[in-house]
Amino acid sequence: MVRILVIAATLAAGISFTSYAQTTPTASVAVKPASTQGPVFPKGNRAPATNFTGTVYVYSLVKDEPTFNCASSNVTFEPGARSNWHSHPAGQILMVTDGLGYYQEEGQPVRLLHKGEVVKAQPNVKHWHGASPKQAMTHIALNVNTEKGIVTWLNPVTDKEYNSYR
Amino acid sequence: MVRILVIAATLAAGISFTSYAQTTPTASVAVKPASTQGPVFPKGNRAPATNFTGTVYVYSLVKDEPTFNCASSNVTFEPGARSNWHSHPAGQILMVTDGLGYYQEEGQPVRLLHKGEVVKAQPNVKHWHGASPKQAMTHIALNVNTEKGIVTWLNPVTDKEYNSYR
Fold first, then answer.
1. How many other CB atoms sit within 10 Å of the CB of residue A118?
2. DSSP readout, A116-142?
3. Residue A43 — φ and ψ, nearest 5°?
Protein backbone atom coordinates (compact mmCIF):
# COMPACT_ATOMS: atom_id res chain seq x y z
CA MET A 1 0.00 0.00 0.00
CA VAL A 2 2.60 2.33 -0.81
CA ARG A 3 1.26 5.68 -1.50
CA ILE A 4 2.84 8.84 -2.01
CA LEU A 5 5.49 10.87 -3.33
CA VAL A 6 6.58 14.32 -3.05
CA ILE A 7 7.69 16.62 -5.70
CA ALA A 8 9.52 19.75 -4.92
CA ALA A 9 10.81 21.62 -7.83
CA THR A 10 12.17 25.09 -7.88
CA LEU A 11 12.22 26.59 -11.27
CA ALA A 12 14.24 29.53 -12.38
CA ALA A 13 12.91 33.06 -12.45
CA GLY A 14 11.65 32.70 -8.93
CA ILE A 15 8.84 30.35 -9.84
CA SER A 16 8.24 27.56 -7.39
CA PHE A 17 5.79 24.74 -7.71
CA THR A 18 5.00 22.29 -4.97
CA SER A 19 2.70 19.35 -5.34
CA TYR A 20 1.59 16.85 -2.71
CA ALA A 21 -0.09 13.94 -4.43
CA GLN A 22 -3.27 12.37 -3.11
CA THR A 23 -4.16 14.52 -0.23
CA THR A 24 -3.16 18.10 -0.55
CA PRO A 25 -2.37 19.36 -3.99
CA THR A 26 -1.06 22.85 -3.62
CA ALA A 27 0.41 25.13 -6.15
CA SER A 28 2.20 28.29 -5.27
CA VAL A 29 3.46 30.53 -8.01
CA ALA A 30 5.42 33.59 -7.07
CA VAL A 31 5.46 36.21 -9.76
CA LYS A 32 6.81 39.69 -9.87
CA PRO A 33 4.55 42.59 -8.97
CA ALA A 34 2.21 43.56 -11.77
CA SER A 35 4.04 46.78 -12.34
CA THR A 36 7.16 45.04 -13.60
CA GLN A 37 5.32 42.92 -16.13
CA GLY A 38 4.08 43.69 -19.59
CA PRO A 39 4.90 46.61 -21.82
CA VAL A 40 5.81 49.96 -20.29
CA PHE A 41 3.58 52.07 -22.54
CA PRO A 42 0.31 51.36 -24.36
CA LYS A 43 0.62 50.11 -27.92
CA GLY A 44 -1.36 53.01 -29.37
CA ASN A 45 -2.79 53.11 -32.87
CA ARG A 46 -1.77 51.69 -36.23
CA ALA A 47 0.87 53.79 -37.95
CA PRO A 48 0.04 55.11 -41.44
CA ALA A 49 0.74 52.54 -44.18
CA THR A 50 2.28 55.27 -46.32
CA ASN A 51 5.41 55.41 -44.14
CA PHE A 52 5.68 51.82 -42.92
CA THR A 53 5.69 48.24 -44.20
CA GLY A 54 3.82 45.70 -42.09
CA THR A 55 2.02 46.23 -38.80
CA VAL A 56 3.31 49.10 -36.69
CA TYR A 57 1.74 50.79 -33.67
CA VAL A 58 2.50 54.30 -32.45
CA TYR A 59 1.69 55.80 -29.05
CA SER A 60 2.51 59.47 -28.54
CA LEU A 61 4.56 60.22 -25.40
CA VAL A 62 5.49 63.86 -25.95
CA LYS A 63 3.73 66.23 -28.34
CA ASP A 64 5.93 68.79 -30.03
CA GLU A 65 5.62 72.35 -28.75
CA PRO A 66 8.03 75.30 -28.65
CA THR A 67 9.06 75.12 -24.96
CA PHE A 68 10.65 71.68 -25.24
CA ASN A 69 11.17 71.37 -29.02
CA CYS A 70 10.77 67.66 -28.49
CA ALA A 71 8.49 64.97 -29.94
CA SER A 72 8.51 61.40 -28.72
CA SER A 73 6.54 58.24 -29.40
CA ASN A 74 6.55 54.63 -28.33
CA VAL A 75 6.66 52.54 -31.52
CA THR A 76 5.98 48.80 -31.74
CA PHE A 77 6.92 46.87 -34.89
CA GLU A 78 5.37 43.43 -35.36
CA PRO A 79 7.80 40.82 -36.78
CA GLY A 80 8.87 41.81 -40.30
CA ALA A 81 7.53 45.35 -40.01
CA ARG A 82 9.71 48.38 -40.61
CA SER A 83 9.69 52.08 -41.31
CA ASN A 84 10.38 53.53 -44.73
CA TRP A 85 13.79 55.03 -45.31
CA HIS A 86 13.78 58.51 -43.77
CA SER A 87 15.97 61.19 -42.26
CA HIS A 88 15.64 63.87 -39.58
CA PRO A 89 16.99 67.41 -39.98
CA ALA A 90 17.98 67.39 -36.29
CA GLY A 91 18.65 63.65 -35.92
CA GLN A 92 16.79 61.08 -33.86
CA ILE A 93 17.42 59.01 -30.73
CA LEU A 94 16.01 55.48 -30.39
CA MET A 95 15.76 53.72 -27.01
CA VAL A 96 14.92 50.04 -27.49
CA THR A 97 12.56 48.93 -24.74
CA ASP A 98 11.69 45.43 -25.92
CA GLY A 99 12.30 42.71 -28.46
CA LEU A 100 14.83 42.38 -31.26
CA GLY A 101 15.00 44.82 -34.12
CA TYR A 102 16.86 45.91 -37.23
CA TYR A 103 18.50 49.26 -37.92
CA GLN A 104 20.29 50.42 -41.05
CA GLU A 105 21.92 53.63 -42.18
CA GLU A 106 22.50 54.25 -45.89
CA GLY A 107 25.72 52.57 -47.05
CA GLN A 108 26.00 50.45 -43.88
CA PRO A 109 24.94 46.86 -43.24
CA VAL A 110 21.74 46.08 -41.32
CA ARG A 111 22.50 45.73 -37.60
CA LEU A 112 20.56 44.22 -34.74
CA LEU A 113 18.84 46.33 -32.08
CA HIS A 114 18.55 44.75 -28.63
CA LYS A 115 16.42 45.73 -25.65
CA GLY A 116 18.21 48.44 -23.66
CA GLU A 117 20.20 49.82 -26.62
CA VAL A 118 20.25 53.52 -27.46
CA VAL A 119 20.98 54.59 -31.03
CA LYS A 120 21.55 58.06 -32.42
CA ALA A 121 20.73 58.72 -36.05
CA GLN A 122 22.72 61.82 -36.91
CA PRO A 123 21.02 64.75 -38.67
CA ASN A 124 20.12 64.08 -42.32
CA VAL A 125 21.47 60.51 -42.26
CA LYS A 126 19.13 58.25 -44.25
CA HIS A 127 18.10 55.25 -42.15
CA TRP A 128 15.29 52.85 -41.30
CA HIS A 129 14.34 50.75 -38.27
CA GLY A 130 11.99 47.91 -37.59
CA ALA A 131 11.46 44.49 -36.09
CA SER A 132 13.53 41.44 -36.93
CA PRO A 133 11.75 38.82 -39.08
CA LYS A 134 10.58 36.60 -36.20
CA GLN A 135 10.52 38.91 -33.18
CA ALA A 136 8.74 42.19 -32.55
CA MET A 137 10.64 45.29 -31.43
CA THR A 138 9.51 48.29 -29.41
CA HIS A 139 11.43 51.53 -29.07
CA ILE A 140 11.00 55.05 -27.84
CA ALA A 141 11.63 57.39 -30.76
CA LEU A 142 12.88 60.77 -29.64
CA ASN A 143 13.19 63.87 -31.75
CA VAL A 144 14.83 66.90 -30.20
CA ASN A 145 15.59 70.35 -31.59
CA THR A 146 12.38 70.05 -33.57
CA GLU A 147 12.50 73.74 -34.46
CA LYS A 148 14.77 72.45 -37.24
CA GLY A 149 12.07 70.04 -38.45
CA ILE A 150 11.13 66.48 -37.58
CA VAL A 151 11.26 63.98 -40.44
CA THR A 152 11.63 63.59 -44.20
CA TRP A 153 10.01 60.37 -45.40
CA LEU A 154 11.55 58.48 -48.32
CA ASN A 155 11.07 55.13 -50.14
CA PRO A 156 9.90 51.89 -48.53
CA VAL A 157 12.57 49.41 -47.48
CA THR A 158 12.52 46.63 -50.09
CA ASP A 159 12.37 42.96 -49.10
CA LYS A 160 15.89 42.58 -50.54
CA GLU A 161 17.18 45.36 -48.28
CA TYR A 162 15.26 44.03 -45.28
CA ASN A 163 16.55 40.49 -45.80
CA SER A 164 20.18 41.54 -46.26
CA TYR A 165 21.04 41.05 -42.57
CA ARG A 166 23.96 38.61 -42.18
CA MET B 1 0.19 -1.75 -4.38
CA VAL B 2 2.55 0.62 -5.68
CA ARG B 3 1.23 3.49 -7.54
CA ILE B 4 3.37 5.77 -9.41
CA LEU B 5 3.90 9.08 -10.85
CA VAL B 6 5.78 10.71 -13.52
CA ILE B 7 7.44 14.04 -13.56
CA ALA B 8 8.20 15.78 -16.71
CA ALA B 9 9.58 19.22 -16.43
CA THR B 10 10.66 21.43 -19.21
CA LEU B 11 12.61 24.47 -18.22
CA ALA B 12 13.32 26.87 -20.95
CA ALA B 13 12.53 30.38 -22.04
CA GLY B 14 8.93 29.37 -21.64
CA ILE B 15 8.80 27.44 -18.40
CA SER B 16 6.28 24.68 -18.21
CA PHE B 17 5.90 22.15 -15.45
CA THR B 18 3.71 19.14 -15.72
CA SER B 19 3.06 16.68 -12.95
CA TYR B 20 1.13 13.45 -13.20
CA ALA B 21 0.20 12.01 -9.85
CA GLN B 22 -2.57 9.47 -9.50
CA THR B 23 -5.29 11.36 -11.17
CA THR B 24 -3.23 13.61 -13.35
CA PRO B 25 -3.36 17.06 -11.86
CA THR B 26 -1.66 19.37 -14.29
CA ALA B 27 -0.10 22.72 -13.76
CA SER B 28 1.16 24.82 -16.57
CA VAL B 29 2.95 28.09 -16.05
CA ALA B 30 3.44 30.19 -19.11
CA VAL B 31 6.06 32.85 -18.86
CA LYS B 32 6.72 35.60 -21.34
CA PRO B 33 9.83 35.50 -23.50
CA ALA B 34 12.95 36.60 -21.67
CA SER B 35 13.08 39.86 -23.58
CA THR B 36 9.91 41.17 -22.00
CA GLN B 37 10.99 40.45 -18.45
CA GLY B 38 13.11 42.45 -16.10
CA PRO B 39 14.14 46.06 -16.32
CA VAL B 40 14.63 47.68 -19.71
CA PHE B 41 17.94 49.36 -18.87
CA PRO B 42 20.76 48.49 -16.47
CA LYS B 43 20.53 50.01 -12.99
CA GLY B 44 23.85 51.81 -13.32
CA ASN B 45 25.74 53.35 -10.41
CA ARG B 46 24.78 54.97 -7.12
CA ALA B 47 23.75 58.59 -7.53
CA PRO B 48 25.71 61.18 -5.51
CA ALA B 49 24.39 61.51 -1.96
CA THR B 50 24.68 65.29 -2.23
CA ASN B 51 21.66 65.52 -4.54
CA PHE B 52 19.54 62.61 -3.32
CA THR B 53 18.08 61.10 -0.16
CA GLY B 54 18.17 57.31 0.09
CA THR B 55 19.39 54.80 -2.46
CA VAL B 56 19.25 55.95 -6.06
CA TYR B 57 20.87 54.45 -9.16
CA VAL B 58 21.63 56.32 -12.38
CA TYR B 59 22.44 54.84 -15.78
CA SER B 60 23.36 57.25 -18.56
CA LEU B 61 21.39 56.79 -21.79
CA VAL B 62 22.37 59.88 -23.74
CA LYS B 63 25.42 62.04 -23.04
CA ASP B 64 25.00 65.73 -23.68
CA GLU B 65 26.70 67.08 -26.80
CA PRO B 66 25.96 70.03 -29.10
CA THR B 67 24.35 68.15 -32.01
CA PHE B 68 21.43 66.84 -29.97
CA ASN B 69 21.47 69.20 -26.95
CA CYS B 70 20.00 66.30 -25.02
CA ALA B 71 20.98 64.43 -21.87
CA SER B 72 19.08 61.40 -20.64
CA SER B 73 19.44 58.87 -17.83
CA ASN B 74 17.56 55.92 -16.46
CA VAL B 75 17.03 56.56 -12.75
CA THR B 76 15.93 53.99 -10.18
CA PHE B 77 14.76 55.11 -6.73
CA GLU B 78 14.57 52.47 -4.01
CA PRO B 79 11.50 52.80 -1.74
CA GLY B 80 11.65 56.09 0.20
CA ALA B 81 14.42 57.54 -1.95
CA ARG B 82 14.03 60.87 -3.73
CA SER B 83 15.90 63.66 -5.42
CA ASN B 84 16.58 67.01 -3.79
CA TRP B 85 14.41 69.89 -4.86
CA HIS B 86 15.77 71.18 -8.15
CA SER B 87 14.88 73.00 -11.34
CA HIS B 88 15.93 72.94 -14.99
CA PRO B 89 16.49 76.07 -17.08
CA ALA B 90 14.97 74.27 -20.10
CA GLY B 91 12.59 71.97 -18.22
CA GLN B 92 12.63 68.20 -17.90
CA ILE B 93 10.59 65.26 -19.18
CA LEU B 94 10.11 62.14 -17.04
CA MET B 95 8.92 58.83 -18.53
CA VAL B 96 8.01 56.38 -15.78
CA THR B 97 9.07 52.88 -16.82
CA ASP B 98 8.40 50.95 -13.62
CA GLY B 99 7.04 51.04 -10.10
CA LEU B 100 5.18 53.71 -8.17
CA GLY B 101 6.68 57.11 -7.47
CA TYR B 102 6.11 60.57 -6.06
CA TYR B 103 6.35 63.90 -7.87
CA GLN B 104 5.89 67.39 -6.46
CA GLU B 105 6.17 70.90 -7.82
CA GLU B 106 6.59 73.82 -5.44
CA GLY B 107 3.23 74.97 -4.06
CA GLN B 108 1.45 71.81 -5.28
CA PRO B 109 0.59 68.62 -3.42
CA VAL B 110 2.65 65.47 -3.86
CA ARG B 111 1.19 63.33 -6.64
CA LEU B 112 1.67 59.70 -7.59
CA LEU B 113 3.67 58.62 -10.64
CA HIS B 114 2.60 55.38 -12.30
CA LYS B 115 4.38 53.19 -14.82
CA GLY B 116 3.73 54.55 -18.32
CA GLU B 117 3.17 58.18 -17.23
CA VAL B 118 5.00 61.07 -18.85
CA VAL B 119 5.48 64.28 -16.85
CA LYS B 120 6.86 67.61 -18.01
CA ALA B 121 8.51 69.87 -15.45
CA GLN B 122 8.38 73.29 -17.04
CA PRO B 123 11.52 75.46 -17.18
CA ASN B 124 12.61 76.84 -13.79
CA VAL B 125 9.78 75.15 -11.87
CA LYS B 126 11.10 73.81 -8.56
CA HIS B 127 10.24 70.13 -8.18
CA TRP B 128 11.40 66.76 -6.91
CA HIS B 129 10.73 63.13 -7.77
CA GLY B 130 11.32 59.79 -6.16
CA ALA B 131 9.93 56.44 -5.14
CA SER B 132 6.86 55.96 -3.00
CA PRO B 133 7.54 54.77 0.56
CA LYS B 134 7.02 51.06 -0.10
CA GLN B 135 7.64 50.66 -3.81
CA ALA B 136 10.59 51.53 -6.01
CA MET B 137 10.19 53.72 -9.09
CA THR B 138 12.21 53.88 -12.30
CA HIS B 139 11.99 56.65 -14.86
CA ILE B 140 13.81 57.95 -17.88
CA ALA B 141 14.86 61.53 -17.15
CA LEU B 142 15.16 63.59 -20.30
CA ASN B 143 16.71 67.03 -20.61
CA VAL B 144 16.42 68.77 -23.94
CA ASN B 145 17.61 72.19 -25.12
CA THR B 146 20.61 71.70 -22.84
CA GLU B 147 22.37 74.66 -24.44
CA LYS B 148 20.28 76.60 -21.90
CA GLY B 149 21.72 74.54 -19.02
CA ILE B 150 20.72 71.27 -17.35
CA VAL B 151 19.94 71.48 -13.63
CA THR B 152 20.08 73.70 -10.55
CA TRP B 153 20.21 71.61 -7.38
CA LEU B 154 18.48 72.89 -4.24
CA ASN B 155 17.67 71.63 -0.71
CA PRO B 156 16.90 68.04 0.23
CA VAL B 157 13.24 67.06 0.47
CA THR B 158 12.44 66.85 4.19
CA ASP B 159 10.68 63.83 5.70
CA LYS B 160 7.71 66.12 6.41
CA GLU B 161 7.49 67.11 2.76
CA TYR B 162 8.01 63.53 1.58
CA ASN B 163 5.34 62.18 3.92
CA SER B 164 2.75 64.82 2.99
CA TYR B 165 1.16 62.66 0.30
CA ARG B 166 -2.58 62.20 0.96
1. 19
2. T-EEEEPTT--EEEEE-SSS-EEEEEE
3. -70, -30
User: Has residue B8 got a pLDDT over 70?
Assistant: no
- Segment holding B18, helix H or strand E: strand B16-21
Task: Name the DSSP class of B160.
Answer: H
Q: What is the pLDDT of residues B21-57, one digit of tens each?
A: 333 334 444 444 445 577 899 999 999 999 999 999 9
Question: What one-character-per-residue DSSP string does A79-110 give?
Answer: TT-EEPSEE-TT-EEEEEEEEEEEEEETTS--
The answer to whether the CB atoms of B61 and A118 lie below 8 A apart is yes
pTM (predicted TM-score): 0.79
- Nearest-CA distance from A76 to chain B in Å? 13
Domain positions in chain A: 6-36, 45-162
Our CA angle for A92, B91, B77, nearest 5°, is 90
What is the ipTM score, two decimals?
A: 0.78
What are the phi and psi torsion angles at A102 (to 5°)? -120, 150
The answer to whether residues A123 and A88 touch, using CB atoms and an 8 Å cutoff, is yes
Residue numbers of A between 126 and 145 with CB closer than 8 Å to B:
135, 140, 142, 144-145
Q: What is the CATH number assigned to the segment(s) A45-162?
A: 2.60.120.10
Q: Nearest to residue A145, comparing CAs of B80, B166, B24, B90?
A: B90
With an 8 Å Cβ cutoff, is B35 touching chain A?
yes
| B17 membership: H or E segment, kind and range | strand B16-21
Per mean pLDDT, which of A3-17, A37-51, A52-66 is the most reliable?
A: A52-66
